[in-house]
Amino acid sequence: MKMRHVLLEVYCENNTSEPPLCCKDGMGNPGYHCLAENCPNVSYTYAPYELAYAGEYGVVPDSNAWIGFGGDMHPIDIDDEKDAKFKELWERICRQKVQEAYEEYMKQVKKI
Predict the structure, then answer these.
(1) What three-state secondary structure class fits 75?
(2) For the segment 31-86, what is each residue's pLDDT rounded down to a tens digit?
(3) Helices (H), the chain
(4) Cα separation of 55 and 51, whole Å?
(5) Which H helix or E strand runs over 50?
(6) Nearest to 12 by CA among 46, 41, 53
(7) Is the whole-model pTM more than 0.85?
(8) For residues 57 and 32, is the Cβ–Cβ distance under 8 A?
(9) How far apart are CA 52 and CA 38, in angstroms?
């Protein structure tokens, strides 16, 4: 079996007062259960160039646990060549930080 981690943004579009039966965490709190149950109110999109910490059920707990490549990191007035270089730089830094997080965790685990 092959496996791949996929980062998605999941949305709850239910505007009614009664949550559907598949609503596990309450309306407005979408998650994997919405996708698994084929909820009619769920929509999703990909989350490109994002770095995140996911908790116990693979859900990012709050806005302080992820950062996306955009905003002031991605100026509007750049050409395609610079855009590609910025994205390569972001990827290199993200991969390095993931490795650093692992190494720091392993170092601190030994102290416990």
Answers:
(1) coil
(2) 888 899 998 889 999 999 999 999 998 999 999 999 998 888 887 788 989 999 99
(3) 32-36, 80-109
(4) 13
(5) strand 50-52
(6) 41
(7) no
(8) yes
(9) 25
